[in-house]
Design a protein that fits this description.
Length: 128
């Protein structure tokens, strides 16, 4: 199974159920994605919990007037089909209200940030 898709769906399902927190198995890339989501205002925070072989990523969900901050998620690049985009072709998501996460040579960053720096990469997902 795709670990990034698993993380995104865990966040979305926990938010739809009205939970305060979502949990996922820990990995460095999942923490990087969560930090980007936190920076862009889609979640309240993320931190690593647990001991050596039982580490978890705890994500604090964010709500605006009882409605979840994330209304939609789309996994763009999948295990069977990778999607790469040059900087010039990175487009705004939902007229600028959404977010794309791009894996670049300089690490994970939002689509806006990658376009500003002039680097493209693998488009992992889109959120709005």
């Amino acid at each position: 199974m795709d670990p990034i898709a698993d993380l995104l769906i865990r966040i979305k399902n926990a938010q739809d159920a009205g939970h305060e927190m979502a949990e996922a198995p820990f990995s460095g890339i999942k923490l990087s994605i969560a930090k980007i989501l936190e920076k862009e205002g889609f979640i309240g925070g993320a931190e690593k919990k647990g001991i050596k072989n039982k580490e978890k990523l705890e994500i604090k969900l964010k709500y605006n007037q009882g409605v979840g901050a994330i209304s939609g998620i789309k996994r763009v690049s999948r295990l069977g089909q990778r999607v790469y985009s040059p900087a010039l072709k990175l487009k705004p998501i939902k007229q600028g209200y959404g977010l794309s996460i791009v894996s670049t040579s300089q690490g994970l960053m939002s689509g806006k940030e990658a376009k500003k720096k002039g680097i493209g990469g693998e488009v992992l997902c889109e959120l709005w």
